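Margin note from the TA: students keep mixing up input and output lines. Inputs are the sequences; the output is the structure of the whole complex. Example:
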Amino acid sequence: MASPASILTIVAIAVPWLASILVAVYRRQTRSVGSVACLISVIASALLLQAAPAGESLYQALMLLFSCLALLATFVLARRDCNSGSIGGILFVLGSTLLAYSTENLLILLAAWILSTVPFFLTRWLRATSWRPSVGLLLSSLALALAIALIAGEGNAVSIEHLKGQNPGGLAAFALLVIAVIFRKGICPAHAWVADAAEGGPAIPTALLLNGHFGALLVAKLIVPLFPRTAGNLFPVLSYLAMGTALYVAIRALTENSPRRLLAFLALSQSACILAGLESRTAEGIAGALVHWFVVTVSTMGLFGILRLLEVRFGENLTAARHLGLAEHAPRLAVFFAIFGLALVGLPGTLSFCSQDLLIHGTLASHPLTGLLLPIATAMNAVSVFRLFTRLFLGQRRTGFTLMADALPRERWILTAGVLFVVLGGLFPNAIVAQRSAEIEAVAQKTPGLLSPVR
Amino acid sequence: MNPSQAALVFVVLAPGSVFAILGLLWLLGWVPAERLVCRITGLTFSACVIGLAAILWKLASTGAPAVVVTFGTWFAVHDYHFPLVLMADRISLPFLGLTVVLSGLIGQFSATYLHRERGFLRFFLLLHLFAFGSLLAFAAGSFDLLAAGWELVGITSVLLIAFFQQRSAPVENGLRVFAVYRACDIGLLVSIFAMHHWAGTASFADGLPHLTGTQAVIVCLLLLLAAAGKAAQVPFSGWLPRAMEGPTPSSAIFYGAISIHAGAYLLLRVQPLLAQSTLASALVIAIGVITAIHGTIVGRASADAKTSLAYASLTQVGVVFVEIGFGWTWIALAHILGHATVRTLQFLRAPSMLHDYHQMHSAIGSELSPAGAQLEDLLPKRAQLWLYRWAFDRGHLDTILDRWVAYPLMQLSRLFGKLDNLGLRGPVRRTEEAAISLGSAASQGGD
């Protein structure tokens, strides 16, 4: 007899998958089908989180977050985007991502990793126009498959629980896992595909793909528990790469004029901060990274959602090269954009202020010199966010079309929910931080040497 | 919590609550009437003044050094704690008083000044957010909390510079100011980390963190970077005239009174640490002297009233820095209070300056006599001309920052862009070019 937790997990994963098949076949009422499926996932994930023991609720929390995000996506999606491809893709990515979060089996993790990328290879669904996203995702999947083959071959097991601390597959498996993280996460020099995917693909489903944070998941789920010793010695390398990426991409964003690419760079830079925090080997850094995971996910989703709403209203050739003055037409969308944008880069009163605070303390404690790159990168990202905001929304009112609708009630309510999450999270951060802190303490007890900063 | 502690919490939270409630209701579709916004603003700041008066009465009657409210830890991870402590002592109380009184006055002034302006509600929302940020920074009992208020003051300042959003110049100037603020705030963030790392706390409610000589120097230098950025000291003075693009009431309260003195407040807070470090004190004095001289020379070549006033402010803040560097805390505090009130009045009178002059001319029946002899007349003609050019370009500070910081960074960014597109012939590059050309075409059409 399956346990209630297993049943809830299966429901949370299977319902979106079944709904995606239904949407692909039936092709009607796509938004309704999609939102109901996401809602069921949200409820199942919430029940799982409630039932999870204290200190072991990270993946359940991430499942709830991601299913809420998918629900937000189905509501924010403009009517013209509400086709079977987009909704089906979102639901398929949701099911695959929840599978990756919930599994403790290497082969299932690999399957989820690959399945989450499938919609982005299908022309009818979510495929980007450039070749780099396909290659990036393919190489990351290939590296992970080889690593898992090595780990399973040498460890004679596919359960992550059984392989913990055994260093299975040795340095080769570790290196392949790091390569998988680099390609999937978009760490320099494999970062360009992320911007291409954001620009050439559908905005909201691509944001959902990026916000799965599979690279960070791999670090938290496989690399740290399976390779504590190797990770201890070689983590600084990945950490430097992550911090270098955060700065490189932040500099790159300073002159980027395509709003989608710019947002992708910002998301990438902030995601690299997550990785740098996870690899800091300090409780503050890891907790900051986990909290920042929540912040980046919600904020970038909100930003991409608003950008898509602007594209639908004002055309797809928006640019940050000149002022477009869209706030005159859409003042509420402008305010939502400003809040999500500044929430991404540490505005006080939002959750990212706490996560950035923890991240900066963690990385500086771990790497006193290179850790400085993180606040510098965040400052540059803040300038880029503000530049994009001013170019899109401020300046002389753009003419050439008649009155355009501001945020519709449906969009307004769902974006307000996102804003409330980042703001209430910022006002009462301990509700989230304390849980992450407890999880880190629990993991640290099981993984000796996890919290020993490299100096 | 006793009544004076409750009053302190109320004073800090009231403007923030008004901002949050009005902002949320507006986001959900409600637009309040101008009169209602003004009444709420008046009531809020009046109540805050009463609250502060109660705290002052309590301190005066009991002789207590400070009212401290400890809420415990905002969040904690392992050994790291973010303390949530509010404090009103003899340094912070004058700043708290200045903030609530001037915010209330500016609110009343703006009710008429911005009547039927398109951004009326936006201005008042930002005024409340600014007041909340300032009060949080001044009432903070730890540098962590001070940083939160500090950042809020920065972002509201920038959003008010870009208040007249239909024109490109204020928007671009806002962006520039934001960049300077963020760059300098790195000093504050890293100094807070350093205090936690070395002393285990960044709280100053029970005295400043204990640091060794070298540690104190490093922390003071980092804080000086943040203070110099916020107070527009040399070499960051270039943003101040750009900030004059905002509406006059916001210029008055930000650059005449509160925001411009926030840097001085930060240095006043760490004065005992500064006193430990001769190097840091000397640097504070040097920056103050250079800024004061820079401000007075550039101010003389400024063509408009608000910019002249801004540079006059800069000169006085430079002098305040010198006073702090010498350890004359109470003189600096008195100087700040006097300067802030006078300068706010001058800023608020600036739009009616011509009218005032006409009235004076009418009253005396002729033109006003010239101001008298100028010190620069003592210089040779060529030197005067050079000095005028130097002052006209505002000491070349923006040019230097552009040439040595902004331009290389942009070039590096473009180089990274080329590296990203290396070997790419496909749609991405074409799309990028198309986006730029279409954007230009659209905005030309719009213009």
